[in-house]
Specification:
Blueprint: H1 3-16, H2 21-24, E1 47-49, E2 52-54, E3 56-58, H3 64-70, E4 77-82, H4 87-101, E5 108-113, H5 118-123, E6 131-136, E7 139-145, H6 150-160, H7 166-173, H8 176-185, H9 190-202, H10 206-213, H11 220-234, H12 240-251, H13 258-269, H14 276-290
Parallel strand pairs: 3-5, 4-5
Antiparallel strand pairs: 1-2, 4-6, 6-7
C-alpha cells in the first residue's frame, strides 16, 4: 500500500466510525489530505497514527495473498469483511480495531470492502456481513458473523494471540540476571540471547557474547553483536574516523586474506544503516572481490 492509499482509507474510516477516538485525532475535516502527515508504513505492516501503532491493513483482491495469506504464515490475521452501507459493520469495526491493537502485533486486522473486492468475498462464500474470519498458516481457524459484543470479540481475539511465557516476561525486564533466567527456561529464546549478547559486548565480555549468539540462527542483530565482539577482542575501532582509515587499509587485502575480509565485514556491520560509508564501502568491497 502506498502512503496516500493508507491515508485515503483512514479518511473513509474516519467517516464510517466518527466516534473512534483514534480516528478522531486525524482532524480530517480541515484538510483534504492532512492525514498523510500522520502515517508511516513499516516493513512489518505497522501504521502509525499520531505516534500510535495500528496493526490494520486495507486489503484488496490484488493484495490479499501478500497481506493475508503470506503474513498468516507467522502471525494470525483477522479478516473483517464489510461494506460502507452496512450499519452493523460500523458497530463492529472500531471494536475489532481496538481489541487487535491491544495485542501489540500478535494479531493483524485485514479490512476488506466486499463491494470493491468480490474475489475475496467469493472465496469465503460470504452471504451476509459483517463476516469475520481468523486465518493462520493460510487456513481458516475460526470465524463469526454479525456485530457481536466487545466481550465476545475479546474472547475471539485472545484465543488467537499467543500468551507471554515466563521467559518473555523476564526478557521484558531487561537486566542480565533476568535474561539468564529466561535462557534457563528457554535456551534458544531469540530476544533473550540478543539482549544478553548486547550486554556482554557492552561490558567487554566478548567471547561469551560470541558463544551466546551461536545458539540461534544468524540474524541482523547477531551479526552486529558478533562484529562488535570480534573487533573488541582485537582492540580495533568500530566508530569514527579510525573506522574509515581501517576500511581503506583492509580493502587492498580482502580478496586474498579471509581474516582481513572478515574484519572488513565486521567494521561494515557496526555502521548505522544511514551512514553513507555503509553503501560506499560495500560497493568498494564488491568491486574489489569481483573485479
Amino acid at each position: 500500500m502506498k502512503l496516500t492509499q493508507i491515508a485515503r482509507q483512514w479518511v473513509i474510516e474516519a467517516t464510517r466510525f466518527p466516534k473512534n477516538p483514534i480516528l478522531k485525532s486525524l482532524s480530517v475535516k480541515n484538510s483534504a489530505w492532512g492525514p498523510v502527515a500522520y502515517f508511516k508504513k513499516q516493513a512489518a505492516g505497522r501504521i502509525f497514527i499520531g505516534g500510535k501503532v495500528i496493526y490494520v491493513l486495507d486489503v484488496t483482491d490484488e493484495t490479499f495473498e501478500q497481506e493475508v495469506l503470506k503474513r498468516s504464515a507467522t502471525t494470525p490475521v483477522v479478516i473483517d469483511l464489510w461494506a460502507p452501507w452496512c450499519s452493523p459493520c460500523k458497530t463492529l469495526g472500531p471494536i475489532l480495531e481496538d481489541v487487535i491493537d491491544k495485542t501489540d502485533g500478535k494479531v493483524f486486522l485485514a479490512k476488506v470492502n466486499v463491494d470493491e473486492n468480490p474475489k475475496v468475498s467469493e472465496t469465503f462464500q460470504v452471504q451476509s456481513i459483517p463476516a469475520v474470519f481468523a486465518i493462520y498458516e493460510s487456513k481458516v481457524i475460526d470465524s463469526f458473523l454479525g456485530a457481536i459484543p466487545k466481550a465476545q470479540v475479546e474472547a475471539f481475539i485472545n484465543k488467537l494471540a499467543p500468551s507471554k511465557s515466563e521467559a518473555d516476561v523476564l526478557v521484558e525486564m531487561g537486566d542480565e540476571a533476568s535474561l539468564r533466567k529466561a535462557l534457563e527456561l528457554e535456551s534458544d529464546h531469540k530476544e533473550a540471547i540478543i539482549a544478553l549478547g548486547n550486554i556482554l559486548v557492552d561490558t567487554e565480555r566478548y567471547q561469551e557474547a560470541l558463544d551466546i549468539i551461536a545458539k540461534i540462527p544468524e540474524t541482523s542483530e547477531t551479526i552486529q553483536i558478533g562484529a562488535k565482539a570480534r573487533l573488541g577482542m582485537k582492540g580495533l575501532p568500530n566508530t569514527g574516523a579510525e573506522t574509515t582509515l581501517r576500511l581503506d587499509s583492509l580493502l587492498e587485502k580482502v580478496k586474498e586474506d579471509d581474516a582481513s575480509k572478515q574484519e572488513y565485514l565486521d567494521l561494515l556491520a557496526t555502521l548505522a544503516p544511514e551512514d553513507p560509508r555503509a553503501v560506499l564501502y560495500r560497493k568498494k568491497l564488491s568491486n574489489k572481490l569481483f573485479a
